[in-house]
From TrEMBL, chain A:
The keyword Hydrolase does not apply. PANTHER family: ATP-BINDING CASSETTE SUB-FAMILY B (PTHR24221), TRANSPORT ATP-BINDING PROTEIN CYDC (PTHR24221:SF653). It is a multi-pass membrane protein. This is ATP-binding cassette, subfamily C, CydC. It comes from Neptunomonas antarctica. Its main location: membrane. InterPro entries: ABC1_TM_dom (IPR011527), ABC1_TM_sf (IPR036640), ABC_transporter-like_ATP-bd (IPR003439), ABC_transporter-like_CS (IPR017871), P-loop_NTPase (IPR027417), Type_1_exporter (IPR039421). One of its GO terms (molecular function) is ATP binding. The chain crosses the membrane at residues 37-56, 62-84, 154-178, 184-204, 271-295, 315-333. Residues 40-328 form the ABC transmembrane type-1 domain.
From TrEMBL, chain B:
GO terms for cellular component: plasma membrane. PANTHER family: ATP-BINDING CASSETTE SUB-FAMILY B (PTHR24221), GLUTATHIONE_L-CYSTEINE TRANSPORT SYSTEM ATP-BINDING_PERMEASE PROTEIN CYDD (PTHR24221:SF261). This is ATP-binding cassette, subfamily C, CydD. The keyword Nucleotide-binding applies. It comes from Neptunomonas antarctica. Keywords: ATP-binding, Membrane, Nucleotide-binding, Transmembrane, Transmembrane helix.
Length: 571, 588
């Protein structure tokens, strides 16, 4: 019956398309939507600011032309109402100033909020994945979460905003021209379409094409630098330091040159755009003067239209890169996405409560005590030809301690990872009896010391009383060490702070394990680096402490086994 | 008169007193490009002035005088030419700016790299390897915008307003006065704001570092959090830290934008003032400000078009604020690197140790090293003694174990013997001859070294084994077989060409250590220095490692190894226990 259950789960997984983490870009826009009020205010302010800026120029131009013409006759000068235009000019200049400030603050605030959320969510998705098969490159991962993610800001800040502002300004500009010089729309419309649509597209192409190779060159440069600084002694002794540094500098220059080529290609597009803008000015001026000479255009409007054109062009040139920035932000998020785990690993283990186990007679000696049963499990690391574990069966039941004592490379650690569900066997079944997933705890071979207080390193966000911490430290003989620490449990440990020796780390790992509410305990090389007498003392204490629980230990030092313990051979 | 010694061409980057000077010194390495950029800036401003003048003339002619001079083609030719130059100049400008930035960054990189080569391991532990790698690559790379965009724009921001003022002076004295009076307010306010912004951006940098360290640390220790099933809580913590960084960033931005807004304000208000002044002048409300008393529409147009141009270069500097802040923080970082100078290399003339391969300072070493003797050798770091003077002799095939708690000077002794750092007193004798070990390339060529973390380059296994010397595949495989790593290497994709990567890939710590040991067998050094090579290995792999070492001594090598592990003692003929306070205990 259980085998059928197992078959069901397998088909489930095959039928269901692998659950994909929603692409980051989608998620980015979801988060931006959550900040929509601020994002929209930013967009509005940006538009108002841009329009106020253009209008300020245009109105000023009209004002001086009109006053100059009015000033030609005494009557004209007398009747000219200069208060309203003066007030408008002053008002526009104030709107432009305050609008700009408000726009920048709101748009940045919205973007940074989104990125902050995105960053922690990405960490969450990294943290949900088991990295035993393909180890996580920690430098890469953290630099993606810290730096690369910032490119995402360009999606809203330097793509959506300037793009929208550009389009709106161009529409308003066309509208104004229609009013004053309807005949030249035929000339202007295609030119504007070119600058607003084609040029940003070309710019995008020039930007994105070399971006990947530049990115690759830069990360190559980082890894050769890192390679140099982590191997300094060897490089000096083999007289390779000069050579490797020269290579590093060459790599850097090569990347610089790629960067320059990109910049040049972009500048070429910008130059074409500048030229089109120049032509546009000439057309407006020429047609304006013609219209003026036949009386179709008022004298005071010509200079106004010219300044309007100049102001709009500044906005257009600022928006040319918007599409490319969108592309860059999109590519950056995709790049980060490609490294994020794409599937959520299923837990294929079967958990059977002690009562159910007793019913179906797969039974443990005493129904209450936990056990692990695995049937013909096989595991092979991806891209490896041979299986580390093949067709392994066994049943380990409390209250015994089991010692797995195969030589290294025979899959001891892999077996523990299979039992904890960090790896999945590609064949066979694993049954955990009398314990749920949370009650099966592992002390890994490598104990990670996190930068934080000793208390943090023991609790790892779980609530434990100081008494419990002290008790577990005493069991693993770290109590003397604790008393030496300047701030006791609040002493900072980890990188850049106090470091621990190999043996101390192992004992810290055991203390962490002791704090868990567990029924099945797996320990991977717990005594490496601890001297024999102390290891025996600690193990004796653990025997008492963990009475009635299932304990499985990976070790090649079988001399530490006591009489009641059993050996479990992998081969 | 006393002739001073010619200063070096580049008034050395590594002696700059502050970040600003450092960046300026780096920028000076591209003086030609910088001058070119200044010239282009002037031409651009002149084009703007000519453009305004021609427009003013044409409109004045058509609107004000109602004549037909605007139909004359040469004006249009001039206009087209000026507009073309204005459109195409940025192309040349960008090219020059990019070259300037490449040169400046190369100067920074070479200076930093040279410093690192000179001081190599003495930089640790003040700097970590990751920190230095980022400095040399990412951080210096990020100064591109500073050298390519900020610097040229900054020069332009000083030149262009002067030219525009002069142009305006040709017509009126009041308009330039308005501009000139508002202008000094800008630097004044910017200084006040900038001062506050500097503090805020310092705090922001601290927050960024905190966030970066936290991220790196938690990702490295992810497994511990996964096993404790508390990754969600940690995610929340990271979110809080990320939010703290956001708050401090916004603080900086609020101040930075304030100075930008100030510029906007003056720029907008100057346009408004000029327009209103001209309008009222035209309407005959007053007659002040012009030289002749007669102001035409053309004059007005010219002045109004130039008014926004006066502030334009300054306004363009605003968005480049980031570039400047980034570059300053990189420069501060470099200064911290350059400030790390050891007194030793300054006093002795050996400024470039690695170029001194065959200098007279080191006598030629004997072909065969039979014995190494330490006579009252006192080790230390930065002229501070560590441990006690040592006396001992090691002969071919012998091995010495260094014991003692961390901090007792085990690593210091190994580094001294390898010639990385100077001994503070005492002598070393090779075959009875006193020999200087410090930076002695000949001596270093005879040494093998292994540390807790196997030193492997991110390169193929082949290149890692050969390290620039020539060996056949057969020799490589023989060395790998000796440390029982041949099967392991054969199983890797690409075998000898397998690329070792940052993430470790398929190699476990023990396997990587074995490959490093294969390198030792391949090169057969006379002396092998080992700094706790077994600390990260499980007992079984460690024992295997020690067996291989025994083979090495049997082949005639000398081994000195520092270790905590009690099990390691069996191999060694001599043991020294170093104590930080008491003297060294020496036992045979």
């Amino acid at each position: 019956m259980r085998s059928k259950m197992r078959a069901d789960t397998q088909t489930d997984i095959k039928d269901e398309p692998a659950i994909r983490v929603p692409t980051l870009v989608k998620r980015y826009f979801c988060l931006l939507w959550e900040q929509r009020s601020m994002a929209v205010i930013g967009l509005l302010l940006a538009t108002i600011t841009a329009i106020a800026g253009i209008a300020l120029l245009a109105v000023s131009g009209w004002f001086i032309s009109a006053t100059a013409l009015a000033g030609l006759s005494l009557a004209g000068a007398h009747s000219f109402n200069y208060f309203a235009p003066g007030a408008i000019v002053r008002g526009l200049s104030i709107i432009r100033t305050t609008g700009r400030y408000g726009e920048r603050i709101t748009t940045h605030e919205a973007t940074l909020r989104v990125i902050s959320r995105l960053r922690s969510e990405l960490f969450g998705s990294l943290a949900k994945h088991h990295w035993q098969e393909n180890p996580l490159n920690s430098h890469d991962a953290s630099s993606r979460l810290l730096e690369d993610i910032k490119y995402a800001e360009s999606l809203y800040l330097s793509a959506l905003i300037p793009g929208f502002v550009m389009l709106l300004s161009v529409l308003l500009y066309l509208f104004t021209i229609m009013i004053f010089l309807p005949d030249i729309i035929v000339w202007i419309l295609p030119m504007l379409l070119l600058t607003v649509v084609l040029m940003p597209y070309l710019y995008l192409q020039q930007t994105l094409k070399p971006q990947d190779s530049l990115h690759q060159q830069r990360s190559q440069q980082w890894s050769s630098a890192s390679s140099l600084f982590t191997n300094l002694r060897t490089l000096i002794l083999y007289q390779r330091l000069q050579h490797v540094s020269a290579t590093l500098l060459d790599n850097a220059s090569a990347a610089d040159i790629t960067e320059r080529q990109t910049s040049r290609a972009r500048q070429k597009i910008m130059a074409i755009n500048n030229l089109m803008c120049a032509v546009l000015i000439l057309i407006i001026l020429w047609q304006g003067l013609l219209a003026l000479s036949v009386g179709e255009l008022g004298g005071s409007h010509l200079f106004m239209l010219l300044l309007l054109t100049l102001g709009t062009q500044e906005v257009i040139l600022g928006g040319t890169s918007a599409l490319a920035n969108f592309g860059l932000g999109y590519a950056a998020l995709n790049r980060i996405n490609a490294h994020a785990p794409s599937t959520i690993q299923q837990d294929l283990r079967t958990f059977i409560s002690a009562a159910a186990a007793a019913e179906t007679h797969i039974a443990t000696p005493s129904a209450a005590s936990p056990a692990i049963q695995f049937n013909a499990i096989s595991y092979r690391y991806p891209q490896r030809a041979s299986a580390v574990i093949s067709q392994l069966s066994g049943k380990l039941a409390a209250p015994h301690w089991y010692w797995i004592t195969a030589p290294s490379g025979h899959g001891k650690t892999t077996l523990l990872h299979l039992l904890t569900g960090q790896l999945n066997p590609y064949q066979g079944t694993i049954n955990i009896i009398g314990a749920n997933a949370g009650q099966l705890c592992l002390m890994p071979q490598q104990i990670d010391l996190l930068r934080g207080t000793l208390r943090y390193n023991l609790c790892l966000h779980q609530p434990h009383s100081d008494e419990a911490l002290l008790k577990s430290l005493t069991l693993v003989e770290l109590d003397h060490w604790l008393r030496q620490l300047p701030d006791g449990l609040d002493t900072w440990l980890g990188n850049g702070e106090r470091m621990l020796s190999g043996g101390e780390l192992k004992r810290l790992g055991m203390a962490r394990l002791l704090l868990q509410d567990s029924r099945i305990l797996l320990l991977d090389e717990p005594t490496a680096g601890i001297d024999q007498q102390r290891a025996v003392r600690i193990l004796n204490r653990l025997h008492q402490h963990w009475a009635g629980k299932l304990v499985i230990i990976n070790s090649h030092d079988s001399s530490l086994m006591c009489d009641s313990d059993q050996a479990f051979a992998i081969d | 008169m006393k002739q001073t010694v010619n200063p070096p061409l580049n008034p050395s980057l590594n002696n700059s007193p502050d970040a600003k000077t450092l960046l300026r010194a780096a920028s000076n390495s591209a003086r030609r490009e910088n001058n070119g950029l200044t010239l282009i800036g002037i031409i651009q401003t002149l084009c703007t002035i000519i453009f305004a003048a021609v427009i003013a003339l044409l409109i004045n002619d058509a609107v004000y005088l109602q004549q037909d001079a605007w139909r004359q083609l040469h004006w249009w030719g001039l206009l087209a030419a000026v507009l073309c130059i204005k459109a195409l100049l940025p192309l040349v400008q960008a090219q020059l700016a990019d070259s300037a930035s490449i040169k400046a960054r190369n100067a920074l990189r070479s200076a930093a790299m040279e410093h690192c080569q000179q001081h190599h391991i003495k930089l640790f532990p003040d700097f970590t390897a990751a920190e230095l790698s980022s400095l040399i690559s990412t951080e210096i790379d990020s100064t591109r915008d500073y050298f390519a965009e900020f610097m040229p724009q900054q020069r332009l921001a000083m030149l262009a307003p002067v030219l525009i003022l002069l142009a305006c002076c040709s017509i009126s004295w009041l308009v330039p006065l308005i501009l000139a009076l508002t202008a000094p307010m800008v630097p004044l306010f910017m200084m006040i704001v900038g001062h506050k912004a500097a503090d805020a951006s310092q705090r922001n940098l601290i927050q960024l570092n905190r966030l970066g360290n936290l991220l790196a640390d938690r990702i490295k220790g992810l497994n511990a959090l996964q096993l404790a099933r508390t990754t969600d809580q940690e995610q929340q913590k990271l979110y809080e830290q990320s939010e703290a960084y956001r708050h401090s960033t916004m603080q900086v931005l609020r101040l930075a934008f304030l100075s930008g807004t100030l510029l906007e304000f003056f720029s907008a208000i100057s346009v408004a003032l000029v327009a209103v002044y001209l309008g009222l002048l035209f309407l005959g409300k007053y007659h002040i400000g012009s030289w002749s008393g007669e102001v035409t529409l053309g004059d007005g147009i010219f002045l109004l078009m130039l008014a926004p141009e006066f502030y334009l270069p300054l306004r363009r500097l605003g968005p480049l604020y980031h570039a400047r802040a980034d570059a300053m923080s990189v420069a501060e970082h470099l200064l911290r690197l350059f400030s790390k100078k050891d007194s030793q290399s300054q006093r002795t003339p050996q400024l470039q140790p690695h170029l001194q391969t065959r200098s007279d300072a080191h006598a030629v070493l004997p072909k065969q090293i039979d014995s190494i003797t330490l006579q009252n050798l006192q080790t230390g770091r930065n002229a501070v003694n560590i441990g006690q003077p040592l006396n001992l002799t090691l002969r071919t095939g012998q091995s010495l174990l260094l014991k003692g708690p961390s901090g007792a000077g085990k690593s210091t002794l190994l580094d001294t013997l390898a010639g990385f750092i100077p001994a503070t007193a005492g002598e070393t004798l090779i075959n009875g001859q006193p020999t200087t070990l410090l930076n002695n390339a000949q001596w270093q060529g005879r040494i093998g070294y292994m540390a807790q973390q196997p030193e492997l380059l991110f390169d193929s296994i082949r290149n890692n084994l050969c390290l620039g010397r020539d060996f056949s595949d057969a020799q490589l495989l023989a060395a790998l077989t000796r440390v029982q790593a041949d099967i392991l290497v054969r199983a890797l994709p690409g075998q000898l060409d397998y690329q070792i990567s940052d993430s470790g890939g398929y190699l476990s710590g023990g396997q990587a250590q074995r490959i490093a040991l294969a390198r030792v067998f391949l090169h057969q050094p006379d002396l092998l220095l080992l700094d706790e090579p077994t600390a990260n290995l499980d007992d079984e792999t460690a024992d295997l490692f020690l067996t291989s070492l025994r083979q090495f001594t049997q082949l005639g090598g000398i081994v000195i190894m520092a270790s905590h592990r009690t099990r390691d003692q069996t191999l060694f003929q001599q043991t020294i226990t170093l104590h930080s306070s008491e003297g060294a205990l020496y036992e045979k």
